[in-house]
Amino acid sequence: MADATLIPLEVLFGNPERVGAQISPDGTRLSYLAPLDGVLNVFVGVIGGGDAQPVTRDTERGIQGYVWTHDNRHILYVRDRDGSENFRLYDVDLETGAERDLTPFDDVQCRIIRLPKHFPNDVFVGINKDNPQLHDVYHLDLTTGELRKVVENPGFVGWLIDNELRVRGAMQPTAEGGMTILVRDDDESEWRTLLDVPPEDAETTGPIAFNGDGTAMYLLLSVGSNTARLVTMDIATGETEVLAEDPVYDVGNVILHPDTREVQAAIVYGERLQYRIFDESIRGDVDALAQLSPGDLAISDRSHDDGTWLVAFDQDAGPVKYYTWDRATQTATFLFDHRPELNDYPLVPMEPFSFTSRDGLTIHGYLSFPPSVERSGLPAVLNVHGGPWARVGWGFDPEAQWLANRGYVTVSVNFRGSSGYGKEFLNAGNREWAAKMHDDLIDAVDHLVGKGYIDAKRVGIYGGSYGGYAALVGATFTPDVFACAVSAVGPSNLNTLIASFPEYWKPMIQLWHKRVGDDPDFLWSRSPLSRVDAIKIPILIGQGENDPRVKRAESEQIVAAMTERGIDHEYVMYENEGHGFVKPENRLDFYHHVDRFLAKHLGGRAE
User: For residue 289, which phi and psi values (nearest 5 degrees)?
Assistant: First the structure.
């Protein structure tokens, strides 16, 4: 390991050189996010021309995501202030350079619902201006900028709009923590129930879109099976037809034809992405693209005539690679790597592994080993994913590369409650925060110690959001397992966490109660703050001042308790951040703190 090059944190966690590429609807221009004076902005230029210029001028947190409108002229993006998640919608006119704030409301959140391809002047957005808990549906006229409310929200948390611009599908939470999927025949009709989804299926069932003529709805559906299947449901009769399913993994994504809305492919995420092709007209394209790179393929954009695709390959041991794909000539043209400097460093693979938990569940995850060392008795970092109803997957993971480069085995575990492995696995995490969900993490450590890979006395636990909570649980519930803990934006008290949720999360509170717990005594018993006296390892905590999800108090109450008891800890708080550290200077500062902290307590290297 001594001769392995130390990868600078700037290379892994600074701004990417270029990322988030898209093509214009007419297929002639390329856009991407790139730094302008150190802040990510949108650049646009002719494909292959090398002449891209910035079209936005953000100087604060940078633009996280954007989208072309179907008129080929505007780019839309959302932006919040200091991590508040009160997103406003902006656009820039590429012909005039004029930028507009399309939702100029304070303390209000805007969400894009749909940009219909065949109505290029129309945009549908959700705005919680009149009731902070509920997003009403507004129509935005791109030419005039006029906003007009088209549906008052009676208690829905999601919307579907058909190809005729009619708001005809919705999702409504139930008092039991389930979900009702509703439809109506047109804008004037009454809503009626299409499907009642019980609580155990609420995370693994949901609508995707209407079909082309609006007579059926595509859904991911786990009702009646363990895994989420792709189905089409007739709106008049409720009859379903299963289009794609897998016995082990959920169907996770669907590719629809941009014009006909027919299903072209379903995507299943096993150890890696798997495409299930339904439309023979794209099978040759997908097969040819698969030969281009060992990475996982994402078809990220398509021109209006469907003749040009923009694709990206996510690979575990290298940067994300972007190409255009000419379907007529079956020719790929390389555009760029998102972080080309990575090509100069010794990156390591993400290796899938699995083990059996103490109560018999099969748990999957990924290991990243330090390069060029014997796999024996190594220090390790258990990197716990957030969510928790999410999963870690294969691909370029900057944290895995950083930790492996510093000399640690990086252990990423899809513990029970993680998504993608069917509803039984997800529901096995119900009311198991700091209990069986944490047992799975401990079992992963024991499994790897038993294999001889890692040194039981040199294991750290690290994560953000739920992963930050898990790190605090590691320090308080299992203080003898870990040598140190790092928590970023992690809750310390489940009662105060749930009581302080943002207003627009409150319609989903019953699902939280179902999955986490509802009794204050029970929630306190699963809170790291209740066991501060058990801490015997050093802890590093990072927090964003304006975090709307895990409020600043979640970090500060446990920091205060540790200070009172004289427990070894470090605390870093970033004044202009929210749930996670977006500004590069803050992100890099935090990773420098963690780099030094882990080196001090686990013996690895630091920059």
Answer: -65, -35
Tell me how many domains the chain contains. 1
Rounded Cα gap, residues 489 and 552, in angstroms: 8
Strand 454-464 vs strand 484-488: parallel, antiparallel, or unpaired?
Answer: parallel
In a domain, 86, yes or no: no
CATH number, domain at 524? 3.40.50.1820
**Given its phi and psi angles, is residue 390 left (phi above 0), alpha (psi -120 to 50 degrees) or beta?**
beta
**DSSP code for 580:** B
Indicate if the alpha-carbon torsion angle 219, 221, 224, 227 is positive or negative. positive
pLDDT tens-digit readout, 241-266: 999 999 999 999 999 999 999 999 99
Q: Kindly give, in sequence order, each residue whose CB lies less than 8 Å from that of residue 550, ignoring residues fewer than 6 positions away.
A: 465, 468, 489, 490, 491, 497, 543, 579
**Annotation says 492 is catalytic:** no
Any domain includes 15: no
The active-site residue out of 465, 492, 500, 530 is 465
**279 within domain boundaries:** no
Predicted local distance difference test score (pLDDT) of residue 82: 87
For residue 34, give the nearest of 24, 23, 22, 20 by alpha carbon: 20
Could you tell me the residue range of the domain that residue 573 belongs to? 343-602
Catalytic residue among 419, 547, 555, 595: 547
Q: How many angstroms from the chain centroid is the CA of residue 435?
A: 24
Decide if 592 is catalytic.
Answer: no
pLDDT digits (tens, 9 = 90+) for 340-374: 999 999 999 999 999 999 999 999 999 999 999 99
**Cβ 22 vs Cβ 33: under 8 Å:** no
579 is catalytic: yes
Non-local (6+) Cβ contacts of 96 within 8 A are none
In 3D space, the residue among 282, 284, 242 whose CA is nearest the CA of residue 264 turns out to be: 282
Contact assessment for residue 403 and residue 380, using Cβ atoms and an 8 Å cutoff = no
- 16 in a structural domain: no
Each residue's pLDDT tens digit, 382-407 = 999 999 999 999 999 999 999 999 99
Which is the catalytic residue, given 74, 364, 385, 579? 579
Q: What is the pTM of this model?
A: 0.96
* CB of 451 closer than 8 Å to CB of 409: no
